[in-house]
Protein backbone atom coordinates (compact mmCIF):
# COMPACT_ATOMS: atom_id res chain seq x y z
CA UNK A 1 0.00 0.00 0.00
CA UNK A 2 1.30 3.43 -0.97
CA UNK A 3 0.94 6.44 1.28
CA UNK A 4 0.61 10.18 0.68
CA UNK A 5 0.75 13.12 3.07
CA UNK A 6 -2.22 15.42 2.53
CA UNK A 7 -1.78 18.86 4.06
CA UNK A 8 -5.04 20.58 4.92
CA UNK A 9 -6.96 21.94 7.88
CA UNK A 10 -10.30 20.76 6.42
CA UNK A 11 -11.50 17.41 7.78
CA UNK A 12 -14.14 17.04 5.05
CA UNK A 13 -11.47 17.19 2.34
CA UNK A 14 -9.47 14.49 4.14
CA UNK A 15 -12.48 12.18 4.34
CA UNK A 16 -13.15 12.60 0.62
CA UNK A 17 -9.52 12.04 -0.34
CA UNK A 18 -9.26 8.91 1.82
CA UNK A 19 -12.41 7.43 0.31
CA UNK A 20 -11.29 8.05 -3.28
CA UNK A 21 -7.65 7.03 -2.87
CA UNK A 22 -8.67 3.81 -1.12
CA UNK A 23 -9.74 2.67 -4.62
CA UNK A 24 -6.04 2.83 -5.59
CA UNK A 25 -4.77 1.22 -2.37
CA UNK A 26 -3.24 4.56 -1.33
CA UNK A 27 -3.34 5.50 2.33
CA UNK A 28 -3.79 9.18 3.25
CA UNK A 29 -1.80 10.61 6.12
CA UNK A 30 -3.38 13.86 7.27
CA UNK A 31 -1.03 16.65 8.28
CA UNK A 32 -2.78 19.69 9.72
CA UNK A 33 -0.45 22.55 8.86
CA UNK A 34 -1.34 26.12 8.01
CA UNK A 35 0.60 27.49 5.08
CA UNK A 36 0.48 30.79 3.23
CA UNK A 37 -1.88 30.82 0.28
CA UNK A 38 -1.08 33.47 -2.29
CA UNK A 39 -4.51 34.11 -3.76
CA UNK A 40 -3.18 36.05 -6.74
CA UNK A 41 -3.79 34.47 -10.13
CA UNK A 42 -5.61 31.19 -10.62
CA UNK A 43 -6.29 28.18 -8.42
CA UNK A 44 -3.43 26.47 -10.25
CA UNK A 45 -1.13 29.33 -9.21
CA UNK A 46 -2.21 29.04 -5.56
CA UNK A 47 -1.31 25.34 -5.50
CA UNK A 48 1.97 25.74 -7.39
CA UNK A 49 3.21 28.55 -5.12
CA UNK A 50 2.40 26.68 -1.91
CA UNK A 51 3.28 23.06 -2.57
CA UNK A 52 6.94 23.10 -3.53
CA UNK A 53 8.09 24.95 -0.38
CA UNK A 54 6.04 22.50 1.73
CA UNK A 55 7.62 19.43 0.08
CA UNK A 56 11.11 20.91 0.48
CA UNK A 57 10.53 21.92 4.11
CA UNK A 58 9.04 18.56 5.13
CA UNK A 59 11.54 16.62 2.98
CA UNK A 60 8.88 14.27 1.67
CA UNK A 61 6.22 14.11 -1.06
CA UNK A 62 3.11 16.09 -0.17
CA UNK A 63 -0.36 16.74 -1.54
CA UNK A 64 -2.39 19.91 -1.20
CA UNK A 65 -5.70 20.95 -2.68
CA UNK A 66 -7.47 24.20 -3.40
CA UNK A 67 -11.05 24.62 -4.53
CA UNK A 68 -12.82 27.61 -6.01
CA UNK A 69 -16.48 28.26 -6.61
CA UNK A 70 -17.61 30.33 -9.57
CA UNK A 71 -21.06 31.88 -10.03
CA UNK A 72 -21.87 32.42 -13.72
CA UNK A 73 -23.67 35.65 -12.83
CA UNK A 74 -20.41 37.22 -11.63
CA UNK A 75 -16.94 37.14 -13.18
CA UNK A 76 -14.47 35.09 -11.07
CA UNK A 77 -16.71 35.31 -7.99
CA UNK A 78 -16.41 34.02 -5.36
CA UNK A 79 -13.56 32.33 -7.22
CA UNK A 80 -10.56 31.74 -4.99
CA UNK A 81 -12.42 33.06 -1.94
CA UNK A 82 -15.44 30.81 -1.29
CA UNK A 83 -14.62 30.41 2.42
CA UNK A 84 -14.06 34.15 2.92
CA UNK A 85 -17.24 35.04 1.03
CA UNK A 86 -19.28 32.56 3.05
CA UNK A 87 -17.82 33.82 6.33
CA UNK A 88 -18.52 37.42 5.26
CA UNK A 89 -21.99 37.07 3.72
CA UNK A 90 -23.38 33.82 5.10
CA UNK A 91 -26.23 32.05 3.38
CA UNK A 92 -28.51 35.09 3.63
CA UNK A 93 -26.07 37.32 1.75
CA UNK A 94 -25.16 34.75 -0.89
CA UNK A 95 -28.78 33.90 -1.65
CA UNK A 96 -29.70 37.61 -1.73
CA UNK A 97 -26.80 38.28 -4.11
CA UNK A 98 -28.02 35.58 -6.51
CA UNK A 99 -31.71 36.47 -6.29
CA UNK A 100 -33.00 37.20 -9.83
CA UNK A 101 -29.57 36.28 -11.25
CA UNK A 102 -28.30 33.31 -13.23
CA UNK A 103 -27.90 30.62 -10.56
CA UNK A 104 -25.52 28.39 -12.53
CA UNK A 105 -22.19 27.76 -10.84
CA UNK A 106 -19.29 25.35 -10.80
CA UNK A 107 -16.66 24.10 -8.40
CA UNK A 108 -13.08 23.79 -9.62
CA UNK A 109 -10.54 21.79 -7.62
CA UNK A 110 -6.81 21.53 -8.22
CA UNK A 111 -4.86 18.86 -6.37
CA UNK A 112 -1.10 19.21 -6.34
CA UNK A 113 1.49 16.52 -5.69
CA UNK A 114 5.13 17.42 -5.18
CA UNK A 115 8.29 15.63 -4.18
CA UNK A 116 11.17 17.57 -2.59
CA UNK A 117 13.24 19.56 -5.10
CA UNK A 118 10.97 18.60 -8.00
CA UNK A 119 8.28 20.34 -9.99
CA UNK A 120 4.69 19.80 -8.84
CA UNK A 121 2.13 17.73 -10.73
CA UNK A 122 -1.41 19.17 -10.91
CA UNK A 123 -4.74 17.36 -11.25
CA UNK A 124 -8.01 19.16 -11.91
CA UNK A 125 -11.68 18.39 -11.44
CA UNK A 126 -14.77 20.44 -12.26
CA UNK A 127 -18.39 20.05 -11.13
CA UNK A 128 -21.12 22.23 -12.70
CA UNK A 129 -24.51 22.80 -11.12
CA UNK A 130 -26.78 25.45 -9.65
CA UNK A 131 -27.10 27.39 -6.43
CA UNK A 132 -30.46 26.86 -4.74
CA UNK A 133 -32.68 29.64 -3.42
CA UNK A 134 -32.79 28.15 0.09
CA UNK A 135 -30.52 26.31 2.52
CA UNK A 136 -30.85 22.58 3.22
CA UNK A 137 -29.63 20.31 6.02
CA UNK A 138 -28.33 22.92 8.46
CA UNK A 139 -28.23 20.21 11.10
CA UNK A 140 -25.90 18.01 9.03
CA UNK A 141 -22.10 18.14 9.28
CA UNK A 142 -21.27 19.35 5.77
CA UNK A 143 -19.25 21.99 3.99
CA UNK A 144 -21.28 25.20 3.70
CA UNK A 145 -21.82 25.26 -0.05
CA UNK A 146 -22.89 21.60 -0.05
CA UNK A 147 -26.15 22.83 1.48
CA UNK A 148 -26.97 25.15 -1.45
CA UNK A 149 -25.36 23.44 -4.47
CA UNK A 150 -27.17 20.96 -6.72
CA UNK A 151 -24.86 19.24 -9.24
CA UNK A 152 -26.00 18.91 -12.84
CA UNK A 153 -28.03 15.74 -13.31
CA UNK A 154 -29.25 15.61 -9.68
CA UNK A 155 -32.33 16.92 -7.89
CA UNK A 156 -30.88 17.36 -4.40
CA UNK A 157 -28.05 19.33 -2.86
CA UNK A 158 -24.76 17.63 -2.12
CA UNK A 159 -25.64 17.74 1.58
CA UNK A 160 -28.43 15.22 0.89
CA UNK A 161 -26.02 12.71 -0.64
CA UNK A 162 -24.05 9.93 1.01
CA UNK A 163 -20.28 10.28 0.69
CA UNK A 164 -19.96 7.40 -1.80
CA UNK A 165 -22.41 9.06 -4.20
CA UNK A 166 -20.69 12.44 -3.90
CA UNK A 167 -17.31 10.78 -4.45
CA UNK A 168 -18.56 9.15 -7.64
CA UNK A 169 -18.66 12.50 -9.47
CA UNK A 170 -17.51 15.54 -7.41
CA UNK A 171 -14.76 17.84 -8.60
CA UNK A 172 -12.52 16.86 -5.68
CA UNK A 173 -13.06 13.15 -6.37
CA UNK A 174 -12.22 13.69 -10.06
CA UNK A 175 -8.95 15.41 -9.16
CA UNK A 176 -7.97 12.82 -6.53
CA UNK A 177 -8.78 9.97 -8.94
CA UNK A 178 -6.38 11.53 -11.45
CA UNK A 179 -3.76 11.71 -8.68
CA UNK A 180 -4.45 8.07 -7.79
CA UNK A 181 -3.95 6.97 -11.41
CA UNK A 182 -0.73 9.02 -11.62
CA UNK A 183 0.69 7.54 -8.41
CA UNK A 184 -0.29 4.01 -9.42
CA UNK A 185 1.53 4.38 -12.76
CA UNK A 186 4.53 5.95 -11.01
CA UNK A 187 4.86 2.95 -8.67
CA UNK A 188 4.69 0.48 -11.56
CA UNK A 189 7.42 2.25 -13.56
Q: Please give the alpha-carbon distance between the first and last residues.
A: 16 Å
Low-confidence stretches: none
Calculate Rg over CA atoms.
17 Å
Q: Helical percent range? A: 25-40%
The fraction of residues assigned to DSSP E strands is 25-35%
CATH topology, by name, is: Maf protein
Structurally, the number of domains stands at 1
Summarize the helix and strand pattern as letters: EHEHEEHEEEHH
Q: Would you report the number of β strands?
A: 7
Mean pLDDT: 94
How would a textbook summarize the main sheet? Answer: 5 strands, antiparallel
The dominant shape is: globular
Which CATH class is shown?
Alpha Beta
Second-tier CATH architecture: Alpha-Beta Complex
SSE diagram, text form:
Blueprint: E1 2-7, H1 11-21, E2 26-31, H2 43-58, E3 62-71, E4 78-79, H3 82-98, E5 104-114, E6 121-131, E7 149-151, H4 163-166, H5 171-188
Parallel strand pairs: 1-2
Antiparallel strand pairs: 3-4, 3-5, 5-6, 6-7
Helix pairs in contact: 1-5
